[in-house]
Amino acid sequence: MPRALRNILVTGGCGFIGSNFIRHSLFQDNFSGKIINLDALTYAGNPENLEDYQNDPRYVFVQGSIENAQLVDRLFDTYDIDTVINFAAESHVDRSIHGPAQFMQTNVMGTFTLLETARKFWAERNDTLFLHISTDEVYGSLGSSGYFTEATAYDPRSPYSASKASSDHVARAYYHTYGLPITLTNCSNNYGPYQFPEKLVPLMILNMLEKKYLPVYGDGKNVRDWLYVQDHVLAIWTVLEQGALGECYNVGGDNEWSNIGLIETLCDVVARETDQKSSELKNLIHFVKDRPGHDQRYAIDCQKIKHNLGWKQTVSFTEGLQKTVHWYLHNMDWVKRVQSGEYQNWIQLNYQNR
Ligand code: NAD
Ligand code: DAU
What we know:
Blueprint: E1 7-11, H1 16-27, E2 34-39, E3 59-63, H2 69-79, E4 83-86, H3 93-98, H4 101-121, E5 129-135, H5 159-178, E6 182-187, E7 189-191, H6 200-209, E8 214-217, E9 223-228, H7 229-242, E10 248-251, E11 256-258, H8 259-274, H9 278-282, E12 285-288, H10 303-309, H11 317-329, H12 332-340, H13 346-351
Parallel strand pairs: 1-2, 1-4, 2-3, 4-5, 5-6, 6-10, 7-9, 8-12
Antiparallel strand pairs: 9-11
The structure holds nicotinamide-adenine-dinucleotide and 2'deoxy-thymidine-5'-diphospho-alpha-D-glucose.
Nicotinamide-adenine-dinucleotide binds near residues 18, 39, 41, 45 and 106.
């Protein structure tokens, strides 16, 4: 029997994956639970991503930090939270290199605060679940062969991945020590609608549209495994409904690309969609100084979630890139508001009289 989903505290629901997750959940008429979205609205949080759902009685938005123990306590109490999905994080590796402190605060201390509150409120319950959303970056860097499995030892290299690895360890410790019902997912690189344009795919698409240089770090031969965000969302639903407590599940696309290979493919897609010459877009490629500690290759073995829970990817890379380019081309107002910083006024404009 799939686990019933009732009062879900989603943290970081205004970010890229969180907003796609909430959109997917509320889009389903048969979802009768409630989603309480706790988001601090950092630069990466954009409540406009969920504008269509503002008046949905199943949806509550609360601006605040997962580090605020009093606030988290109040939300557990008021909404009788039985499920937590912890998306909230500082998520960009480059930013973690320039300013690691906020990564430790949010990703480690914020997760700790949520776990502590769940432990307090759920001591007498057996119908609860804390799903911690993590990344394949905790496993470190691969050479030209091999895959990360759930048994691969953690070996994080960047302040971002070290902070995520720490939070994964704390979550696991709460399972073993206190019996808190925890599951984890470790996913590869996502792409798709609503991704903040500092990440590779949207940055490249928007630079191509503006005829700006396409900055490729190092020699462009680093490899990532790409998954369309909707498939990550489906994996999260699958783990929520059927995941075994105390287990972690790797999620990936079986879809390895070198950065340069991906960027050249993206040039072809953007050229087709905008009626331009792909060769002219490729001329914008510009090799720049490498990211310090740049992990060489990530590749995920996701047989466990496939075999044990029946999840599989549904969107091919060709289709996913096309959908993504299409989405950015048709949402240039969103892009402009994000690029100008105007999206950060959304909350004042829409919530000031509530
Ligand atoms: P994102 O940067 O787009 O969104 C993060 C969200 O968290 C934002 O809405 C932000 O406002 C919010 N947030 C930040 N600090 C907060 C705090 N203290 N309290 C409450 N909210 C806070 O990130 P994303 O790409 O959507 O990633 C979501 C999660 O998935 C992260 O935990 C990330 O580590 C993980 N992940 C991401 C990817 C990827 O490719 N993007 C892949 C695997 C795992
Ligand atoms: O693997 C999962 C991770 O994927 C998530 O945990 C992170 O939250 C997410 O940001 C992502 O991390 P990456 O560092 O892999 O993503 P990013 O888009 O920053 O970079 C992807 C690759 O492209 C990486 O090898 C660095 C390279 N790159 C990136 C940018 C922004 C470039 O060559 N040029 C760029 O301008």
